């Protein structure tokens, strides 16, 4: 869990820097308002303005690509932070388990407590929770990649195609590693979805 916690924290920091970069595309450009006002003043001074001319600023609406990119990145950040929280909770639960067992001085009392708590972990599917944390983190990484490719597509098509090629190759490898244990039981490669 420590490795997941560290990765989730570092990954969240990286995603946050990209969100800060992409966040500006969701708001109107303040320079556009200044330019429009200066144009209107210039036209009025030149005598070209019609009386009661209104400022030619349309309602701002962010581009659909900006909405998609920010949605991908914000979802990615939320999932990464959820993984960090879940990892700390699992560590806390493990400490509680160990403390509850070790508090009992007699070996038979420790054994009963261990069986009791272990049955509770099985009943409440603790292993599914623990195995779900990497799955969420993987989903977070893929959402980030989707946002990155979409972001780069708006900037430069060639760079976006290169990034998409790398992401597609990694995604294909991930799918192969996921399917391989189903096809070959001896395969040491697994993902949380295997």
Automatic annotation (TrEMBL):
Alphabetical list of InterPro entries matching this protein: DUF6535 (IPR045338)
Keywords: Membrane, Transmembrane, Transmembrane helix
Keyword Phosphoprotein: no
Pfam families: DUF6535 (PF20153)
Top-level taxon in the UniProt lineage: Eukaryota
Domain DUF6535, residue spans: 1-153
Transmembrane segments: 71-94, 128-153, 159-183
Name under which the protein is recorded: DUF6535 domain-containing protein
């Amino acid at each position: 869990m420590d490795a997941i916690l560290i990765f989730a924290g570092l990954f969240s920091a990286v995603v946050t820097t990209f969100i800060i970069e992409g966040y500006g595309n969701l708001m109107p450009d303040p320079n556009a308002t200044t330019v429009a006002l200066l144009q209107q003043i210039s036209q009025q001074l030149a005598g070209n303005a019609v009386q009661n001319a209104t400022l030619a600023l349309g309602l701002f609406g962010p581009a659909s690509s900006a909405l998609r990119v920010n949605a991908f990145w914000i979802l990615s950040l939320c999932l990464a932070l959820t993984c960090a929280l879940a990892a700390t909770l699992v560590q806390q639960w493990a400490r509680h388990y160990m403390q509850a067992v070790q508090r009992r001085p007699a070996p038979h009392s420790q054994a009963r407590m261990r069986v009791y708590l272990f049955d509770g972990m099985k009943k409440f599917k603790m292993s599914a929770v623990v195995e779900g944390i990497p799955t969420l983190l993987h989903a977070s990484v893929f959402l980030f990649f989707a946002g990155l490719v979409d972001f780069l597509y708006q900037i430069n098509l060639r760079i976006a195609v290169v990034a998409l090629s790398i992401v597609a190759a990694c995604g294909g490898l991930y799918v192969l590693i996921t399917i391989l244990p189903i096809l070959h039981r001896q395969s040491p490669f697994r993902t949380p979805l295997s």
